[in-house]
Each structure stands twice: as C-alpha cells, then as structure tokens.
Amino acid sequence: MASADKKVVGSVAYQTRDKSYFESRQLVRHANAWHLWALGVGAVISGHFSGWNGGLTQGGWGGMFIATIIIAIMYLGLTFAIAEMSPALPHTGAAYSFARTSMGPWGGFLTGLAENVEYVLTPAVIVFFIGSYLTGIFGTTPEFQPVWWIAAYIVFLGLNIWGVALSFRVTLVVTILALLCLVVFWISALGHIDFSRWALNIGPGGVELPDGNGPFLPNGIGGALAALPFAVWLFLAIEQLPLAAEESIDPKRDMPRGIILGMLTLIVSAFAILTLNPSVSGIGSFALGSSGEPLLDGFKAIYGEGIAKGLALVAVLGLIASFHTIIFAQGRQIYSLSRAGYFPTFLSVTHGTRKTPHVAMIGGALLGLAVILTLWFLLGEERGGAAIGFTLLNMAVFGAMLSYIMQALSFILLRKNQPNIERPFRNPFGIPSAVLTILIAIVTLYFQLNDPIYRQGILGVAIWFAVFVAYFALVGRHKLILSPEEEFALEHAEAAKAASGAAELAGKVAP
Question: What is the DSSP string of 30-42?
C-alpha cells in the first residue's frame, strides 16, 4: 500500500511503500559462477551461428578480422568495467543501477531505456530466425511462421517463469550444447580448409576472385571500419549478466568471475568461427557474406546436403540458447525499472510461489511479439520479414551501443566521484579502458548511421524513446519508489556530497 509521504529529490519525487510492496516483488538466489557464465555466453552464442558474416562483404576476411579485434577490445573494456561495478552495486537494475548512482534519475532512466530497446527487440528478432529455421526443417508454409513464434515464446516464457533453478539449468544445458555444436564444426572444418583460396576470395570493390588469394584488406581500412557493426554480433548481450545480481548466491565473488570467463570464452569462439567458417572448401568469404545460415552452410560443405535437416536442428541450438537467456534478461530489466517506479509498478510483481518476475517477462514478450506480428501482417511476408530481420535488429544494436557509452561513462564517474564505494573487484585497466570503450562505440554508431539499412532503425529508436520519456516526464518521475538501487544511489550521493564538503572546508582552513 502506498503511503501519503513523499520525498522530493531534485526533479523527482519518491513515494514510500510498506513492507508488502517488496514482499510481492521478491527474487530467489540460486546462480553460481557457472550459471552466470552460461547466462552471458548463451545470450551471445547465436551471433556465432549467423549475423557476423555480413562483415565479410564490407571488408573481406581481413577487414572483418580487424573489426573483430577492435570490437573485442571495446567489449573487454565494457566487461571489466561491469565486473567492477556489478559486485559494488549488486542490484538487478545493472546498467540502470550503475547510471542511476553516477548520473542521477534521468541518467539511470535513459540508460535503462536504451537497454530496454535491446532486450525487448533482440529476442523478437531471434524468434523470427527460429521460425525461419523450423519452417525449413518441418516444411511448413511461410504463412505458418507466426505460429512458430508464438509457440517458442510460450515454451521459453514457461521455462523462465517456472522457477529460477529450472531457468538456470536450461541456460547451462543449451549453452553447453550450442558450444559443443561449434566445437564439432571447428574440428570437422580442420580437414577441409584452404584459407588463401577461400577465405581470401574477395577483391577490391567486393568482387569475387574465382581463384582466391586476394588481398588482406580488399576495401582498405574503411572496409574494416564498415564491418564494425557486424563484429558486434560476436559479443552482443554479454553485458546482460549483472541483471542476475539479486539471484546470484554470491554476486560479489561470482559476478566478476562469470563475466570475465564468459568474455574469454566468446573471444576464443569468435576468432575460431571467423577463421574456419570462411576457409572451408567450397564456400568462401564471398558466398558466406550474404548467407543467412553461415554455420549450416559450413556443415553442408563438409558433410553434404543429405543431412541438411538434421544439421539445421543442430544449428538452431544457438538461436534457442540466446532466445532463452535474453528472455531472462528482458524480464529482469523491466522488473528493475518497474520496481523503482520508472515503468508502471504492476510489471514488477513476482510469482507468488516461483518468485520469478512473470509479469515483466510476459509484458516484454507481448510487446516484442506485437511488433513483429504488426510488421509481418502490415507489410506482407517479404517486406515484413526484411523489416524484422534488419530494421529491428539494427534498432537493438543501436540501443546497445548507447547503453555501452552510458555504462562506460558511469564507470568513469563512479571512479572519480565516489572512490570510497566498496569494490570487491577492481578493474585493472581502469579509466583508460572505459574511455576506449566509449570511443569505439561512437565510431561503431557512426558506421551504423552510414549504412542506409541501419538508418531505418533510428526512427524506431527515436519513437521508442519519445514514448517512454514522455511517460517518465509526465508520470513516472513523480512516482519513484525507494528500491534497493534508488536507496543505494541516494545514500552514496549524500556521502559523496558530505565528503566533498569536508574536503572543501579543509582546504579553506588550511594555512
């Protein structure tokens, strides 16, 4: 029940809530370091099955290789910053929590909103690709695809709602199976590769070289930079791991371990798939650059077309792993913003016995599903599919880049303005790595905006922001709740202000 008491802080007002408010929003601690590792790796792994390969068209194999190094550096800077912030601020809010403590309510809300774009739209796009795979495997008509989408949401929402123990168990299993699928491909490919002939079969201007042995950078360094947005798919969503902070048994110990181990796993996998997939005889970088199923094409080249449907079932594992884990993150992200009053508070109610944020997960799923169904039926099968596969995908990446900039900035501000916060893990690369993350994210955004396909998604992000910012400005900011994230931010803001005042006074009285 809401109290009549209000606390005004700057441009926002807090409503106090009694004990029952938080009792109806409880989570359960279950995750260990391996569960967290699986959550991070599983969210990303579908990007190693497909999506990254479009960068081969932009910059050839060499350009994509350089782009992957640059993006890996950006994500290393981001993950080490998160590895420091998440155990210091072990709240479900994650990115929103970091920015709220360092930049105030508006900074926290805008960061959370950027991440919300990513976590609502990414599973919607992934379920579209799942439907495409299942259509080919079972021979259903294209018009039947929405049924696959709805069925996938029902199954994996059910698994996530059933309980955190089952959710993490499924996450661990599907992530390991997806990685094993990749390992089988790597081992299989070793006896069927000719790197110079096939990986280097793109010439200047993007033309195919029938005999291969082309230049390392067929389109120069500009081609490598244009490939940056595609390299993002090899690591996108590793940052979701801190959303499990309040369901981690020991977040101060396990969160840094899980996210760093997850990032190292992804780096190994990214460079393995980048090197081996285009090198398989009979495929090559040129054909792979426009493929919708690069890993499946690699399996077909090695084992033949006869077992294509069986291989497709194997390949869909990566999509399933990412879909399941990002639904988990979507629910926690909406839950945290709702519990604090930034979104309507009914979204943060947890299941009475399962203690999972079922309302937030269902709400996010319905929104994502509504978007893809609207595009599909309004634009038609072909145009609607293209809009889902490219426009929504690009909106998710754009939201992610904005959140990375804000999270890295949060790290810098927390280091500078609140040095006394307890930090169980300390980022050894410090502020310079966060600055590098911001710079690379800005460059990546620039090259996204240079691509007409990417630009189509910007209007969608602008509308998304306009709707939610209007809600927060008119309603939400007057109804914030003192959730754990908000209490932590206010408490440490007051402590930092007091410390600053004491230091200023000491300076005035010093001889």
Answer: -B-HHHHHHHHHH
